[in-house]
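The passage that follows is intended for readers who have already worked through the single-chain material. We present the inputs for a multi-component assembly, then the predicted structure in tokenized form, and finally a short commentary. You are encouraged to pause after the input and sketch how you expect the pieces to fit together before reading on.
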Amino acid sequence: MNNRREDAIVARLRAALRRGRAVAGIGDDCAAVESPRGKLLLLKTDCVVEKRHFRADASATAVGWKAACRAVSDIAACGGEPQHALITCVLRDKQAGRWLDGLYRGIEKAGREFGFHVVGGELARTDGPAVVNVAMTGTVARREFIPRGGGRVGDLLFVTGTLGGSLRSGWHLRFRPRLAEARWLAETIRPSAMMDLSDGLAADLPRLAAASGTGFVIEPEAIPRRRGASLRAALADGEDFELLFAVSAAKAARLQRAWRRRFPALRLTCIGTLAKRGVARGFGAVHGYDHFSDS
Amino acid sequence: MNNRREDAIVARLRAALRRGRAVAGIGDDCAAVESPRGKLLLLKTDCVVEKRHFRADASATAVGWKAACRAVSDIAACGGEPQHALITCVLRDKQAGRWLDGLYRGIEKAGREFGFHVVGGELARTDGPAVVNVAMTGTVARREFIPRGGGRVGDLLFVTGTLGGSLRSGWHLRFRPRLAEARWLAETIRPSAMMDLSDGLAADLPRLAAASGTGFVIEPEAIPRRRGASLRAALADGEDFELLFAVSAAKAARLQRAWRRRFPALRLTCIGTLAKRGVARGFGAVHGYDHFSDS
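Having made your guess, compare it with the prediction:
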């Protein structure tokens, strides 16, 4: 599904959503619905498709890890903690034995690591590419929920880790969702907006800005790249599963000091600011570069 | 996926489940997890696959209705009410426009009818058969939750409606999940065990009995068949989406009187009883018949 088409459908569905009772939903990383005792119930569904998200020869355990961690990453991006998972496997006959076992080992490893329990699932058969869908619930205190659309003009934009080259480096199969980091941010810093980077910064940042009713200005040179990754790769490869978030300028110094103490091994980079609606600066040169290199 | 293999995987997963905090889970119609205020949160994931669960030329709206109503049927079978749904669509390029619109129309129609809200979803691309997965939450008061495994020896077995021929008659695309009936049963009769019939009585009844630690004796002649459906079809076609439930003999007369007043248009049939573990009577002749007719 290309991003343009997906965004269009998201916009159409948002209208339907207003009739529901969700606090956040389509267009956010998770849906969030009211729950007793000042909590929100987070709901996420996410799938990986053979030949799109993993190769047919990928380790089944790695595929299970990836399928589960993608959903964990979305729960984390809202400030929440994962709780329960339901797995749907649509597999070819020959995948229903040892391959399925390996898949579940990967999912259960992620469950131990990130604190969720597999409570149900379903199996169906296909003669086409395998599909593994993970439906996950999570929980977050209402006051710690971080929406995608809470950014304000002047907020500074940060990303964790490095971007680009996730496929070539194998990162897309073995990444660790930034759950501890996101929980810490939700509890201590309260970013105004946050999301995880799954489609690449060049697709995802405009979504955060649009949801916030703002524009953005970024410094292409500041974007932290994985070793060997070009700027284009850092912007467009996707499947980084790093956090992108906005914080007020007043909080930024405290954030950077506290981050270095708390997460000394993980890079945190300020890449720009949220600007007035309609401003989209920093990708321009990159788009030009892309166009040039493709033509 | 054949039933034998699915049952084996279900058994394997049940061990993992014990480590979780679910009240019910793999092997039940839904997972049920603790929720505040005497409630259980019900979680279900269910998918339909092109060429398996619907033909490529089926109306997209009917496919959406079916995909949503399958999950509603499972929530209902636990005594619960559906609340929120997340939709994952894995589609070929040419299905991502009008077909997807039609699919959502069918899902939203089911939402209006059965009281759930679509709060999120995801789109992915495939070059194989389309897959539509529905992840649904529901709620039920703890004391109204009906497990699959609560049946006792001597309980009477009932089914709603008629069985068999769901494909030929088109029932599988336009069935109405028995939500009102199941809620009424949960509130007033409290069946000891209940499930919805999705794989056919001959596959599903042994599951209810096994979960309850009992056997069963049924009267093949008593099984209510759809017009034109053979006994074999009523037992094995599947996708009936009727309720199968067990009630103590003491409640049975009251059930039948009250049912006729409350649901005069829907047949309710006593088809047998739960018996001692190891007893499986009534399908024997049918299996023999099947074997004979196939050889």
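Commentary: Chain A has two domains: 18-144, 156-294. The domain at 18-144 of chain A is CATH 3.30.1330.10 (60s Ribosomal Protein L30; Chain: A;). How closely did your sketch match?
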